[in-house]
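Pilot study result, target chain (148 residues):
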Amino acid sequence: MMRALVCIKNAGRSNAYLLRYSIRWKVALELPEEPFYGHMAVTNQVIERDEMTWLVYDPDPIVLSDAERTAINSNQTHLWIYGFLAYGDFMEDMHTIGFSYRWEIVPATGDQPRGLIPDGPPRYRYQSYQQKEGDVTPGKRISRRRVA
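Predicted structure:
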């Protein structure tokens, strides 16, 4: 059994108030076009300026069958880690960041494996922002910018 740990850093100029997040995994050749986040962790963690912290979602451990491990190791399918985090800033504005990474065993270039690499459909990789009025949820994005 494994767990996905996500390291985040507050690169802003003030504290970030982490409100909820989801870290999911899937074994598939490609991710579906729309993410399914399912259960979310709810928190009130304060992340200070320039602080780094680790997030883990314990109710969803990564458990791979022998067949899945073999398929992943032979590049017939992939292990994906994806999710989002939502936080507020000192102005009580809401920010949501979506992410997805693919475990690279055999790179197409023939070079050395790089581990988890950013990949996946655009709906998984985004940043959204909403001013204090209203609510931001993963399915209700006001403005979106693709994350490189």
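One observation from the pilot: Confidence is low (pLDDT under 50) at residues 139-145. A full batch analysis is planned for the follow-on phase.
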